[in-house]
Each structure stands twice: as structure tokens, then as C-alpha cells.
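Session log. Operator J.P. requested a structure for one protein chain; no other inputs attached. Running the standard single-chain path with C-alpha cell output.
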Amino acid sequence: MTQDGKRVAVEGDRDDRISGLPRNVIDHILELLPVQDAARTSILSSNWRYIWSTLSNLVLDYDFCRKLIGESESKFKLAVDEILLLRMGNIVKFVLDISGAYLSCADIDRWVLFVTRNGVKKLTLRISNLNTYTLPLSIFECSTLTSLELTNCVFKPPSSFLGFPNLIALHLEVTTFVPTTSFCVINAPLLRYLSLDMCPGTQYLNIISPVLKSLGVRDSHYYLMLNCFINCKKLRVVKLLCEVVDNQNHDEKLTLEKLLISLPALEVLYLSSYILEILSADVVPNGLPFTLNFLRHLSLFVAFDHLGQTSYALQLIKNSPSLSKLEIWVLSTTDNDEAVLKYLDTPSCLEQPINKLEHVTIKSFGISKVELRFVKLLLSRTPSLLRMCISQKTDIDVDIALELMRFPRASPRAELSYFRY
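Structure written below.
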């Protein structure tokens, strides 16, 4: 064959390879494209004309929505209406991100009603904080939902709401709970993953989720709703990243300890500096009322100029015999806190080796005497340590680096990295 003939053959093979791909592969490729690009494939050939309209995942992301709304709000509404009307088959996943613009609630209701009537399982709504969007009845009546992610919504279930029978994952951000009665009850028997991020009204929330595995809370009223998770014996991951609130409740410490005591299978724990402060009550504990036997990953935000937080952090480390990974975020520190320095020099603060700890990360290092003493203590009590990474925002101090490298290490395999990020 001629050289031109060979070129034509190669191009033909290439076309055949694309068109001959398994349908699930083609669907996956199209789902990775922006929706407008996926729609353009309908003009490639008659075989491709309806493929994009049968895709089960429909993602109208921030860039897509912002661009069209920026051109014309009416153009955006028309585009979404046409995209939905041209769909063939169920919509398994629907993402609508209009967080960058104000839009009529009636339009959102119409689109949500369409997807809930077409078998949606994974629903994400990110609404602008300029809107006050109350979830429509269609969401509370959608029994097919397995994943629900909401931002800037109002969660006000009807009195007839029985829960989400198939929901597995629930992520709520700045979503306000408005109870129909005294409490907002969510019955989710299959729920495994729950995240509540700055959601007003959680004090009215009661979630029934016996198989819950992961809980993340960042909310000022967190302690008022933690009791409903005490019977969640399968919880493996708990993240309590709550901030300081004006009106502290004296029952907070009891509620927190009651929760930690009730979780025998806990493997991953994140605690904010505020939670540490509540748990320690600014008093050096003689011992914790619980042991986290299966905890292997501990992440703490610590103010090292607070004796209570520093001591409680060490108590948690001591009471976690299976701990293999430790993360410390330094929030504040000082060179002049003699009480903390004296405590870290006390043999009882960490008298036993942490035998299974292999990886330690310390972030926002402030090169204070307290932090250096803390690092020295950890290095001397971790015989299985493989790597310790210390990072800071400022330029590296050569003298501090040399001091760190000279600290004695219980583990002969331990490596230490010190760098700026």
C-alpha cells in the first residue's frame, strides 16, 4: 500500500476503536466531560446522537452554571429545562451548583421534582447564600435516595416524613433545621456517613442511624445532638471540629466523654482545640475514664500555651494502645509557660512507650520551647516510629533544625523531616 493508503487505514482503525469501545466505557468518558461538551458528541454520527442523553449521571457544576447565568438567566433556565427533558432513562446522579448566583426557588423545585421522579439516587444541591431555599416535599418523598448533599438549604420535613429508607450518605453544610414538632427526626436505618458543617438548628435534630460508621460535626450546638449517636456502636470515624461558642453548657464534657466511652470500635478521631479545652476543663487529668483500644489515627488541634489541652492530648495518646498515626496542628504556643514546660518534664506525663505509633505529623510548628519539648518526648517514647514530619509557615531556623536532629530516638528506623510549607 502507498504511504497515503497506510495513513487512511490508521485513521479508520482509530475511529473504529473509539466507536467500538464498550458502552460503559463510552458513558464513563462522556460523564467526565462538561455537560455542554458531552451534548456536542450527538452530532458525531447517528450512533452517537442519543448516547449523551442516556447518561445516568448529570452534573451541572459551578463553572457550567456560572457561565450560563452570567450570559443570561433565562438562557440558563432554558438550557437546564432542555437538558432534563431530553434525558432518556433514570437519572442516578444529579448535581446542581448555583452557589454563585441567585435563582428562583420555583425553578429549582421544578428540576428537583423531575429528578426525584426519575429514580435519582445521588442528589447534590449547592445553593447561593443569597437564597433562602426550603427543600420541597419531593425530596422528603424520594425513597430512592442513597446520597444527599445540601448547601445553604432549609431542612423542614413535613409531619408525615418517615425518613430516608435507603440513604447511605448525608452531607449538610450551612443547612438550617426547622422542626415541624419539638424535634426534627430523621430515620435513616442504612445511613453510614454523616457530616454536619455549621448547620443552625442541630439542637432540634434527632437522627436514628444504627449502622452509622462515620460522623463529622462542626457546629456550635453539637453537644445537644450527640446523645443520639451514643448507641451507634459501629462508629469507626468521629470528627468533632467545633469552634468556640459564647454560651458553654456545663454538660458538654459529660456528653463528650459519654460518647467516647460508648464507641468501642472507634478507629479514627479528630478533635478541635475547643473540644480539647472542654474535655480537659483546664486541669491536668490523672487519667481518662476510657481507653480507645482500636484507635489507630488521632488528629488533634492543640493550643500548646494551654496546660489542659497539652496534657489531655498526651492522655489521649497514652490511652490509645493501637495508635499508629498521629497528627498535631499547632494553634498557639509560647516560650514562657513554665507550667506546661514543667508538666512535659514530669515522667508521668508519658511514662509508657507508644509501641505501635509509626507516623507523626506536626503542622504549623512554632519552634517554641514547649513544642520542642513535646517533640523530644514523642521521639523518646515511640520505639516503632518510622517517620516524623514537622512543617511550619516561616523560614527554617538552622539552629532549630540541628536541635531537632540531635534529639534521642527510641526507634532506630525513625526519620525526621523539617520543612516550610
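Operator note: Residues 6-14 have pLDDT under 50 and may be disordered.
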